[in-house]
Design brief:
This protein has 334 residues and is α/β, with parallel strands linked by helices. The protein has helices at 15-26, 67-74, 89-94, 96-117, 151-170, 196-205, 224-236, 256-269, 286-289, 301-307, 315-333, and strands spanning 7-10, 31-35, 57-61, 79-82, 122-128, 173-179, 182-183, 210-213, 218-219, 222-223, 244-246, 254-255, 279-282. The radius of gyration is 19 Å and the shape is globular.
Length: 334
Protein backbone atom coordinates (compact mmCIF):
# COMPACT_ATOMS: atom_id res chain seq x y z
CA UNK A 1 0.00 0.00 0.00
CA UNK A 2 1.35 3.43 -0.92
CA UNK A 3 0.79 6.79 0.72
CA UNK A 4 -1.98 8.97 -0.64
CA UNK A 5 0.55 11.73 -1.34
CA UNK A 6 4.35 11.84 -1.40
CA UNK A 7 4.49 14.53 1.31
CA UNK A 8 3.55 13.66 4.89
CA UNK A 9 3.18 16.08 7.78
CA UNK A 10 2.99 14.70 11.31
CA UNK A 11 1.13 17.14 13.49
CA UNK A 12 -0.47 18.19 10.22
CA UNK A 13 -3.58 19.71 11.77
CA UNK A 14 -1.55 21.66 14.31
CA UNK A 15 -0.41 25.26 14.13
CA UNK A 16 2.74 24.94 12.02
CA UNK A 17 1.69 21.73 10.23
CA UNK A 18 -1.56 23.20 8.93
CA UNK A 19 0.19 26.41 7.88
CA UNK A 20 2.71 24.33 5.93
CA UNK A 21 -0.04 22.20 4.36
CA UNK A 22 -1.93 25.29 3.19
CA UNK A 23 1.27 26.77 1.74
CA UNK A 24 1.98 23.53 -0.14
CA UNK A 25 -1.60 23.41 -1.44
CA UNK A 26 -1.19 26.95 -2.75
CA UNK A 27 1.62 25.52 -4.89
CA UNK A 28 -0.64 22.65 -5.98
CA UNK A 29 1.39 20.18 -3.90
CA UNK A 30 -0.74 17.56 -2.11
CA UNK A 31 0.09 16.40 1.40
CA UNK A 32 -1.18 13.86 3.90
CA UNK A 33 -1.80 15.36 7.33
CA UNK A 34 -1.25 12.93 10.20
CA UNK A 35 -2.69 14.10 13.50
CA UNK A 36 -4.21 12.52 16.58
CA UNK A 37 -6.47 15.54 17.27
CA UNK A 38 -5.74 15.02 20.95
CA UNK A 39 -7.43 17.99 22.67
CA UNK A 40 -4.36 18.54 24.85
CA UNK A 41 -2.30 19.50 21.81
CA UNK A 42 -2.62 21.88 18.88
CA UNK A 43 -4.51 19.91 16.22
CA UNK A 44 -7.74 21.55 15.03
CA UNK A 45 -9.84 20.96 11.91
CA UNK A 46 -10.55 24.69 11.78
CA UNK A 47 -6.90 25.21 10.90
CA UNK A 48 -7.52 23.97 7.36
CA UNK A 49 -10.96 25.52 6.94
CA UNK A 50 -9.89 27.53 3.86
CA UNK A 51 -9.37 24.23 2.02
CA UNK A 52 -11.74 21.95 3.86
CA UNK A 53 -12.54 18.98 1.63
CA UNK A 54 -9.78 19.90 -0.81
CA UNK A 55 -8.20 16.83 -2.40
CA UNK A 56 -4.77 18.44 -1.94
CA UNK A 57 -5.12 17.93 1.83
CA UNK A 58 -5.65 14.33 2.86
CA UNK A 59 -6.27 13.80 6.58
CA UNK A 60 -5.35 10.70 8.54
CA UNK A 61 -6.29 10.64 12.22
CA UNK A 62 -3.38 8.70 13.73
CA UNK A 63 -1.07 8.98 16.70
CA UNK A 64 2.68 9.03 16.07
CA UNK A 65 2.98 6.63 18.99
CA UNK A 66 1.08 4.01 16.95
CA UNK A 67 3.71 2.37 14.77
CA UNK A 68 1.24 0.12 12.99
CA UNK A 69 -0.80 3.03 11.66
CA UNK A 70 2.34 4.78 10.40
CA UNK A 71 3.71 1.90 8.33
CA UNK A 72 1.20 2.06 5.44
CA UNK A 73 1.29 5.87 5.47
CA UNK A 74 5.08 6.07 5.25
CA UNK A 75 5.46 3.36 2.63
CA UNK A 76 6.81 5.18 -0.41
CA UNK A 77 6.85 8.63 1.18
CA UNK A 78 9.23 11.14 -0.38
CA UNK A 79 9.18 13.96 2.20
CA UNK A 80 8.26 13.85 5.87
CA UNK A 81 7.82 17.05 7.83
CA UNK A 82 8.00 15.70 11.36
CA UNK A 83 6.21 18.36 13.41
CA UNK A 84 4.25 16.28 15.92
CA UNK A 85 5.26 16.80 19.51
CA UNK A 86 4.29 17.65 23.06
CA UNK A 87 5.23 21.33 23.48
CA UNK A 88 4.25 22.29 27.01
CA UNK A 89 7.21 22.64 29.35
CA UNK A 90 5.02 22.55 32.45
CA UNK A 91 3.16 19.46 31.21
CA UNK A 92 6.49 17.73 30.63
CA UNK A 93 7.34 18.22 34.30
CA UNK A 94 3.89 17.19 35.56
CA UNK A 95 3.65 14.14 33.25
CA UNK A 96 7.19 13.29 32.13
CA UNK A 97 6.37 9.84 30.77
CA UNK A 98 3.85 11.11 28.21
CA UNK A 99 6.43 13.64 27.06
CA UNK A 100 8.97 10.82 26.82
CA UNK A 101 6.56 8.70 24.75
CA UNK A 102 5.76 11.46 22.25
CA UNK A 103 9.02 13.40 21.97
CA UNK A 104 11.52 10.54 22.26
CA UNK A 105 10.15 7.01 22.00
CA UNK A 106 7.69 7.82 19.18
CA UNK A 107 10.46 9.56 17.25
CA UNK A 108 12.66 6.49 17.42
CA UNK A 109 9.75 4.28 16.40
CA UNK A 110 8.93 6.54 13.44
CA UNK A 111 12.54 6.44 12.25
CA UNK A 112 12.55 2.66 12.48
CA UNK A 113 9.45 2.56 10.28
CA UNK A 114 11.18 4.87 7.81
CA UNK A 115 14.26 2.64 7.79
CA UNK A 116 12.13 -0.37 6.93
CA UNK A 117 9.54 0.98 4.47
CA UNK A 118 10.76 4.43 3.33
CA UNK A 119 14.57 4.51 3.42
CA UNK A 120 14.56 7.15 0.65
CA UNK A 121 12.41 9.62 2.61
CA UNK A 122 13.61 13.18 3.23
CA UNK A 123 12.85 14.30 6.82
CA UNK A 124 12.75 17.75 8.39
CA UNK A 125 12.40 17.54 12.16
CA UNK A 126 11.08 20.44 14.24
CA UNK A 127 13.12 20.82 17.41
CA UNK A 128 13.26 23.73 19.87
CA UNK A 129 15.59 26.38 21.24
CA UNK A 130 14.68 24.98 24.69
CA UNK A 131 17.44 22.39 24.33
CA UNK A 132 20.06 25.10 24.94
CA UNK A 133 18.76 25.76 28.44
CA UNK A 134 19.92 28.99 30.07
CA UNK A 135 22.23 30.59 27.52
CA UNK A 136 25.94 30.86 28.26
CA UNK A 137 26.20 33.55 25.58
CA UNK A 138 23.92 35.38 23.18
CA UNK A 139 22.98 35.15 20.42
CA UNK A 140 23.07 31.36 20.78
CA UNK A 141 24.47 29.53 17.76
CA UNK A 142 24.24 25.84 16.92
CA UNK A 143 27.52 25.15 18.76
CA UNK A 144 26.13 26.43 22.06
CA UNK A 145 26.24 23.86 24.93
CA UNK A 146 23.07 21.80 25.25
CA UNK A 147 21.74 21.88 28.81
CA UNK A 148 17.94 21.58 28.86
CA UNK A 149 16.21 22.81 32.00
CA UNK A 150 13.11 20.62 31.74
CA UNK A 151 11.96 17.17 30.65
CA UNK A 152 10.61 18.53 27.37
CA UNK A 153 14.02 19.88 26.40
CA UNK A 154 15.75 16.60 27.23
CA UNK A 155 13.30 14.55 25.18
CA UNK A 156 13.42 16.95 22.22
CA UNK A 157 17.21 16.69 22.33
CA UNK A 158 16.90 12.91 22.19
CA UNK A 159 14.58 13.29 19.19
CA UNK A 160 17.21 15.40 17.45
CA UNK A 161 19.94 12.86 18.07
CA UNK A 162 17.79 9.99 16.80
CA UNK A 163 17.21 11.83 13.51
CA UNK A 164 20.86 12.71 13.07
CA UNK A 165 22.01 9.20 14.01
CA UNK A 166 19.66 7.56 11.50
CA UNK A 167 20.86 10.03 8.89
CA UNK A 168 24.48 9.16 9.58
CA UNK A 169 24.13 5.38 10.00
CA UNK A 170 21.15 4.43 7.83
CA UNK A 171 21.04 7.22 5.28
CA UNK A 172 17.62 8.48 6.41
CA UNK A 173 18.23 11.99 5.11
CA UNK A 174 17.29 14.24 8.01
CA UNK A 175 17.58 17.91 8.89
CA UNK A 176 16.88 19.50 12.29
CA UNK A 177 15.40 22.96 12.72
CA UNK A 178 15.52 24.53 16.18
CA UNK A 179 12.47 26.77 16.38
CA UNK A 180 12.06 29.80 18.62
CA UNK A 181 8.75 31.37 19.68
CA UNK A 182 6.89 30.69 16.46
CA UNK A 183 3.60 32.59 16.36
CA UNK A 184 0.81 33.46 13.97
CA UNK A 185 -2.70 32.43 12.84
CA UNK A 186 -3.83 28.94 13.92
CA UNK A 187 -1.61 28.80 17.01
CA UNK A 188 -3.18 27.47 20.20
CA UNK A 189 -4.67 30.32 22.22
CA UNK A 190 -6.91 28.69 24.80
CA UNK A 191 -3.97 28.06 27.13
CA UNK A 192 -0.20 28.48 27.33
CA UNK A 193 0.67 24.94 26.23
CA UNK A 194 2.09 26.18 22.94
CA UNK A 195 3.10 29.80 23.51
CA UNK A 196 2.44 32.57 26.00
CA UNK A 197 1.50 34.86 23.10
CA UNK A 198 -1.63 32.81 22.55
CA UNK A 199 -2.98 33.59 26.02
CA UNK A 200 -2.06 37.26 25.62
CA UNK A 201 -3.99 37.45 22.33
CA UNK A 202 -7.02 35.61 23.71
CA UNK A 203 -7.29 37.90 26.72
CA UNK A 204 -6.73 41.02 24.65
CA UNK A 205 -9.51 40.12 22.20
CA UNK A 206 -11.85 39.31 25.09
CA UNK A 207 -11.24 42.73 26.60
CA UNK A 208 -9.34 41.32 29.57
CA UNK A 209 -5.84 42.35 30.71
CA UNK A 210 -3.09 39.80 30.09
CA UNK A 211 -0.17 39.19 32.45
CA UNK A 212 3.46 39.90 31.59
CA UNK A 213 5.73 37.93 33.88
CA UNK A 214 8.94 39.73 34.71
CA UNK A 215 9.04 41.79 31.54
CA UNK A 216 12.76 42.31 31.12
CA UNK A 217 13.52 38.93 29.50
CA UNK A 218 14.65 39.20 25.88
CA UNK A 219 13.11 37.07 23.15
CA UNK A 220 13.06 36.72 19.39
CA UNK A 221 10.04 35.58 17.43
CA UNK A 222 9.48 33.78 14.14
CA UNK A 223 6.27 34.46 12.24
CA UNK A 224 4.73 31.20 11.05
CA UNK A 225 5.07 31.98 7.32
CA UNK A 226 8.80 32.48 7.79
CA UNK A 227 9.00 29.16 9.66
CA UNK A 228 7.11 27.44 6.82
CA UNK A 229 9.57 28.92 4.33
CA UNK A 230 12.50 27.49 6.32
CA UNK A 231 10.88 24.03 6.45
CA UNK A 232 10.48 23.94 2.68
CA UNK A 233 13.99 25.21 2.02
CA UNK A 234 15.44 22.55 4.31
CA UNK A 235 13.45 19.77 2.62
CA UNK A 236 14.54 20.83 -0.86
CA UNK A 237 18.28 21.20 -0.20
CA UNK A 238 20.72 18.30 -0.21
CA UNK A 239 23.20 20.60 1.55
CA UNK A 240 20.91 20.56 4.60
CA UNK A 241 21.07 16.78 5.10
CA UNK A 242 22.54 15.94 8.50
CA UNK A 243 22.56 19.60 9.54
CA UNK A 244 21.07 21.54 12.46
CA UNK A 245 19.78 25.06 11.95
CA UNK A 246 18.54 27.72 14.34
CA UNK A 247 15.59 29.83 13.29
CA UNK A 248 15.51 33.39 14.55
CA UNK A 249 13.38 36.44 14.08
CA UNK A 250 13.03 39.41 11.82
CA UNK A 251 14.80 42.26 13.58
CA UNK A 252 16.39 42.75 16.99
CA UNK A 253 15.36 40.74 20.06
CA UNK A 254 12.81 42.50 22.24
CA UNK A 255 11.86 42.33 25.91
CA UNK A 256 8.59 40.76 27.02
CA UNK A 257 7.45 44.23 28.08
CA UNK A 258 8.23 45.61 24.62
CA UNK A 259 6.45 42.60 23.10
CA UNK A 260 3.34 43.42 25.11
CA UNK A 261 3.49 47.06 24.03
CA UNK A 262 3.89 45.98 20.39
CA UNK A 263 0.86 43.68 20.67
CA UNK A 264 -1.24 46.52 22.05
CA UNK A 265 -0.02 48.82 19.27
CA UNK A 266 -0.96 46.19 16.65
CA UNK A 267 -4.43 45.93 18.19
CA UNK A 268 -4.84 49.68 17.99
CA UNK A 269 -3.79 49.56 14.33
CA UNK A 270 -6.80 47.31 13.78
CA UNK A 271 -9.06 49.43 16.04
CA UNK A 272 -9.70 46.48 18.34
CA UNK A 273 -11.43 47.58 21.58
CA UNK A 274 -9.06 47.18 24.53
CA UNK A 275 -9.37 46.99 28.29
CA UNK A 276 -8.55 50.23 30.10
CA UNK A 277 -5.33 48.54 31.21
CA UNK A 278 -4.48 46.03 28.44
CA UNK A 279 -1.77 44.25 30.46
CA UNK A 280 -0.24 44.11 33.91
CA UNK A 281 3.33 43.24 34.85
CA UNK A 282 3.65 40.52 37.49
CA UNK A 283 6.53 38.82 39.22
CA UNK A 284 7.52 35.59 37.49
CA UNK A 285 5.66 32.64 39.14
CA UNK A 286 8.02 30.62 41.31
CA UNK A 287 7.07 27.24 39.82
CA UNK A 288 7.79 28.48 36.29
CA UNK A 289 10.92 30.40 37.22
CA UNK A 290 12.63 27.10 37.97
CA UNK A 291 12.48 26.09 34.32
CA UNK A 292 12.64 29.52 32.72
CA UNK A 293 15.69 30.02 30.50
CA UNK A 294 15.92 33.80 30.94
CA UNK A 295 17.03 35.82 27.93
CA UNK A 296 17.22 34.00 24.61
CA UNK A 297 17.74 34.99 21.01
CA UNK A 298 19.18 32.95 18.19
CA UNK A 299 22.20 33.29 15.94
CA UNK A 300 20.57 32.17 12.70
CA UNK A 301 23.39 33.03 10.32
CA UNK A 302 23.98 29.39 9.42
CA UNK A 303 20.58 28.82 7.77
CA UNK A 304 20.77 32.23 6.11
CA UNK A 305 24.16 31.41 4.61
CA UNK A 306 23.53 27.73 3.77
CA UNK A 307 19.95 27.91 2.49
CA UNK A 308 19.34 31.57 1.76
CA UNK A 309 16.55 31.78 4.35
CA UNK A 310 15.56 35.23 5.45
CA UNK A 311 12.59 36.04 7.68
CA UNK A 312 10.39 38.71 6.17
CA UNK A 313 7.64 39.45 8.70
CA UNK A 314 8.46 41.85 11.53
CA UNK A 315 6.90 41.51 14.98
CA UNK A 316 4.31 44.28 14.72
CA UNK A 317 3.18 43.15 11.28
CA UNK A 318 3.05 39.52 12.41
CA UNK A 319 1.03 40.37 15.51
CA UNK A 320 -1.32 42.47 13.40
CA UNK A 321 -1.89 39.54 11.02
CA UNK A 322 -2.44 37.19 13.96
CA UNK A 323 -4.91 39.51 15.68
CA UNK A 324 -6.79 40.02 12.42
CA UNK A 325 -7.19 36.24 12.09
CA UNK A 326 -8.48 35.71 15.62
CA UNK A 327 -10.71 38.78 15.52
CA UNK A 328 -13.01 36.72 13.28
CA UNK A 329 -12.01 33.17 14.31
CA UNK A 330 -11.79 33.46 18.11
CA UNK A 331 -14.92 31.45 18.91
CA UNK A 332 -13.53 28.38 17.12
CA UNK A 333 -10.36 28.27 19.22
CA UNK A 334 -11.59 28.78 22.77
Amino acid sequence: MHVTSPILITGGLGFIGSSLALALADKNQPSTLIDSLNPSYGGHLRNIAPRSGDQLLRINISDVRDRHSLEPLLNGAEVLYNLAGQTSHMDSMADPFTDLDINARAQLSLLEVCRQVAPQVRIVYASTRQIYGRPHYLPADEAHPLQPVDVNGINKLAGEHYHLLYSEVYGIRSTVLRLTNTYGPRMRIKDARQTFLGVWIRNLLQGQPFEVWGGEQLRDYTYVDDCVSALQLAASSDAAIGEIYNLGGCGQPVSLLKTAETLVAAARDLEIPLAAEPFVVREYPAERKKIDIGDYYADDRKIRQHLGWEPKVGLREGLRLTLAYYATELEHYL
